[in-house]
Amino acid sequence: MSFDLVKNRLVRTLGDLGYAESTMPFNFEEAPTNEYNNTFIVKAVSGENDEDNSETLSNRFYDIQKWQILVAFAKSQHNDIANRDDLHRKKDLIINEIDDPTNWVSNVRIQKYISWEVEEMEDYYLLTITLKVIDTYIYT
User: Fewer Cβ in 10 A, N or C end of the chain?
Assistant: First the structure.
């Protein structure tokens, strides 16, 4: 398994929902406003060895990874309640698709939704969805 396989699958799943990958690599702080509501950032945040399984299998280990999906949603003085409500509807759709086992990469043991958070920034709302991915590495 590899970073690219997991990332590409997440990008494809989000693309199927009508989102495109942002031009910003890490956050939306410098993103143009036309990226709000329709782009995302996917990033691998951390990983650690699954100690329970590393001693029992001689040819593989499992990397427990934390991934994040970031989506910025526009703020407006006139429509803040509607925009915020729309954000939550879209969040539910994203979580449903990402957490669906039929959308996992075949070599990933688990890809599960862990948490979501909404932060109010100056010009936008930032939705952060955190995922747990257990990736399988096989020694060759």
Answer: C
